[in-house]
């Protein structure tokens, strides 16, 4: 290409059989955007099979779609005008394929919504209007199709316009225009129709060329959701490459960056690519990797941002506009999975503010569940902090999906942030109120055992070292006559809990919660409870501390001992003696002369 033309994505939606695919086929034909001979090929195919030619057949590539006459997946195609190139997406209209419609519309900058003039406004005409509002698409053009079937009567067009405009106004959608068309006859698509002299507005192509491009994503604050971290070991290559796709903004070598929700900071040292020359800068739309200085430890799911730019919100609660597609209703208190960019988190429905029936346009502020195909304004609560933007600010990090039992059951946009109420601490508060205390006082147990109860967590970056140290510490304390018990996090998957319940991508999060609950029981019994968890971050430590309340926790980071030269040969007597001495210094063990 000698020069790069502007490009825009448009989605076409509407009720089944209202003519979306025909509109697209006609646009392709009338703008000369079809491959050479394609139109004639389809016409000949129809003639051989004694089947009337339809412009929709230019799009319906799947055999079962032609047989059934409905679009069941999103078809992407391209056409161009003198002004720009277009990617046009034909989204399914049937109610059973709303998931596909949402997928197709997710990246669109504008929408054409097609309504059959003869059949009128249908259930999915309303639902799709809700979906466009939900996805934040504010450039909407309504095409009142099949005007030829109603004799091109102005009265029919205006009845549809008045009814649908009233509906859209109630969901805060203001369409750019209503256009009477006949896609089959080409009326008011590429040129004005003589059949409707009463219509004084522009044709569809003129309106499309007048649509505004969304703000250049490179001009927005930098967001790179971390997909993975790659570490190299051959040929003394010690790089750790943080990889992902840049959603918005740009970053260059030397920029200070911050990772959320962990709040860790570093400086971009290099920008890496696979089998391509080294870059000094990378922007929106590109998959890339970066190396950092210092080489901090971060996890997939973090969002990398540029320091000094507006940052995402970090918290565990947010207000959302949600569309539910699950087989079962969404109910408060049930555990779901949230996927936002590359983040994964357990999420609960905390509060329903109102539920909208998209077909009947009724509002229920008292409903206690979100039924299939309901649209709801609600508050969602995650167990751990996530980083997010409001959808109106940055769409890529303001949209999410909800997974129920391994299936995508809902999706939505984040409309507002909420002060972090901390789900775990609220749970602990409720638990402690209901906790039935023993008649034996903690002081009595401490006096009997000669120790104070403690939850000891051994952590570090070496996956096997902390386990060896934890078990050796248990053995030493036991030989010295103390009441101590070691439990590996792996033991939680067998016997005490169902292993299947954590095979959903959040095993660590759930197992940390379980360890915290178990620690509360062990320390309440006066025990020294020991476990090992690799690479604990600050938030996970806070969760364990909260769950073990009112008892205390001691975290021993072996990486810090290694830096001081005390962890060499893990499990050594020197290391164990230092830990034991610490336990006496903190008054966990008694009667020891330091």
Structure description:
The protein has 594 residues and is an alpha+beta fold. The protein has four domains: 7-209, P-loop containing nucleotide triphosphate hydrolases (Rossmann fold), CATH 3.40.50.300; 221-306, Beta Barrel (Elongation Factor Tu (Ef-tu), domain 3); 315-420, Elongation Factor Tu (Ef-tu), domain 3; 438-585, Rossmann fold, CATH 3.40.50. Helices cover 26% and strands 29% of the residues. It is built from 14 helices and 27 strands. The strands form six sheets. The protein has a six-stranded mixed sheet with strand order 2-3-1-4-5-6, sandwiched between helices. Strands 7-8-13-11-10-14 form a six-stranded antiparallel barrel. A six-stranded antiparallel beta barrel has the order 15-21-18-17-22-23. A hairpin with a 3-residue loop joins strand 10 (256-260) and strand 11. Helix 11 packs parallel to helix 12. The longest helix is centred in the last third of the chain and has 18 residues, at 507-524. Residues 61-74, 93-98, 501-505 and 567-571 have low confidence and may be disordered.
Amount of helix: 25-40%
CATH class of the largest domain: Alpha Beta
Radius of gyration over all CA atoms, rounded: 30 Å
Low-confidence stretches: 61-74, 93-98, 501-505, 567-571
Measure the end-to-end span. Answer: 78 Å
Indicate the proportion of strand residues. 25-35%
Spatially, the strands of the biggest sheet line up as: 2-3-1-4-5-6
Number of strands: 27
Q: Which word captures the global form?
A: elongated
Count of domains: 4
């Amino acid at each position: 290409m000698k020069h790069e033309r502007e490009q825009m994505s448009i989605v076409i939606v509407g009720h089944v059989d209202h003519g979306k695919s025909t509109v697209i086929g006609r646009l392709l034909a009338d703008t000369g955007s079809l491959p050479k001979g394609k139109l004639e090929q389809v016409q000949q195919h129809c003639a051989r099979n004694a089947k009337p030619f339809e412009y929709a057949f230019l799009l319906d590539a799947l055999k079962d779609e032609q047989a059934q006459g409905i679009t069941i997946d999103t078809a992407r195609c391209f056409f161009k005008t003198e002004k720009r190139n277009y990617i046009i997406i034909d989204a399914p209209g049937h109610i059973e394929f709303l998931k596909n419609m949402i997928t197709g519309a997710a990246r669109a900058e504008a929408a054409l919504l097609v309504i059959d003039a003869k059949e009128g406004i249908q259930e999915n005409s309303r639902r799709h209007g809700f979906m466009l509002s939900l996805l934040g698409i504010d450039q909407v053009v309504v095409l009142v199709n099949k005007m030829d079937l109603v004799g091109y009567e102005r009265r029919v067009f205006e009845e549809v316009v008045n009814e649908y405009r009233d509906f859209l106004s109630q969901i805060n959608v203001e369409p750019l225009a209503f256009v009477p068309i006949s896609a089959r006859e080409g009326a008011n698509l590429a040129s004005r129709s003589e059949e409707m002299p009463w219509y004084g507005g522009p044709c569809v192509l003129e309106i499309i060329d007048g649509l505004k491009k969304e703000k250049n994503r490179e001009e927005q604050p930098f967001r790179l959701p971390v997909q993975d971290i790659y570490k190299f070991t051959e040929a003394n290559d010690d790089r750790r490459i943080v990889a992902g796709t840049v959603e918005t903004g740009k970053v260059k070598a030397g920029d200070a960056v911050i990772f959320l929700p962990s709040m860790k900071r570093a400086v971009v040292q290099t920008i890496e690519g696979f089998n391509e020359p080294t870059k000094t800068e990378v922007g929106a739309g590109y998959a890339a990797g970066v190396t950092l200085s210092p080489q901090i430890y971060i996890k997939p799911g973090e969002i990398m941002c540029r320091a000094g730019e507006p940052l995402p919100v970090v918290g565990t609660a947010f207000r959302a506009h949600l569309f539910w597609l699950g087989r079962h209703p969404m109910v408060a208190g049930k555990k779901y999975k949230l996927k936002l960019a590359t983040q994964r988190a357990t999420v609960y429905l905390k509060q329903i503010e109102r539920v909208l029936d998209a077909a009947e346009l009724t509002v229920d502020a008292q409903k206690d569940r979100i039924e299939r195909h309901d649209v709801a304004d609600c508050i969602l609560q995650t167990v751990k902090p996530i980083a997010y933007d409001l959808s109106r600010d940055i769409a890529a990090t303001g949209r999410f999906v909800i997974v129920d039992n391994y299936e995508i059951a809902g999706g939505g946009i984040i409309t507002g942030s909420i002060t972090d109420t901390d789900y775990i601490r609220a749970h602990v508060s409720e638990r402690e109120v209901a906790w039935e205390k023993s008649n034996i006082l903690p002081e009595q147990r401490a006096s009997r055992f000669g120790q104070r109860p403690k939850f000891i967590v051994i952590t570090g970056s070496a996956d096997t070292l902390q386990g060896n140290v934890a078990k050796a510490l248990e053995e030493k304390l036991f030989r010295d006559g103390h009441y101590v018990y070691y439990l590996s996090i792996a033991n939680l998957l067998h016997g005490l809990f169902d292993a299947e319940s954590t095979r959903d991508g959040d095993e660590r999060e759930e197992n940390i919660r379980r360890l915290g609950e178990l620690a509360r029981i062990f320390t309440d019994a006066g025990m020294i409870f020991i476990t090992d968890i690799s690479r604990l971050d600050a938030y996970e430590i806070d969760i364990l501390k909260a769950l073990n309340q009112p008892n205390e926790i001691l975290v021993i980071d072996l990486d810090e001992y290694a830096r001081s030269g005390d962890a060499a040969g893990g499990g050594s007597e020197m290391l164990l003696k230092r830990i034991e001495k610490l336990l006496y210094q903190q008054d966990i063990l008694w009667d020891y002369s330091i």
